[in-house]
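Ligand: zinc ion. Inputs:
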Amino acid sequence: MKVPFEESGGGRPQPSSEAARPVGRAMRRGARGRCPACGAGRLFEGYLAVRPVCRVCGTELHHHRADDLPPYLTILVVGHVVVSGLLLTERLLAPAMWIEAAIWLPLTLFLSLALLRPIKGAVVGLQWALRLHGFGRTAAAPSPSPSPLLPPKAA
Ligand SMILES: [Zn+2]
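Predicted complex:
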């Protein structure tokens, strides 16, 4: 028996006219703080607030659900850089504690603030490219239909 497979995996047919959304390009655009769809409009208003709609192409951006992933990834990256650097300097140079604190505390703060926004932009770009959380909806299909595998609800 042949089982129909849909690329979206969302259980609803995708119009063939929908353009491809390359993941890498969308994530790079998001990391630069640009709209993942057009690459020209600004993604953020302020430091981390995502604009509801791109002012250049009109793409709805409010569907994103970045939630805790950007801070998690930021902590992961910064933690690896700072902890490995701290251990390496301690092992090789063994400087005074105040010197360690003067180097690693500001570096932790700087790296966290510098990486959080591009990482959040990349996450929003990833969600847009994968058509997650409503990013794939078109005006013709405003809401996903129930799964064809489920029996119809009793009236
Ligand atoms: Zn745009």
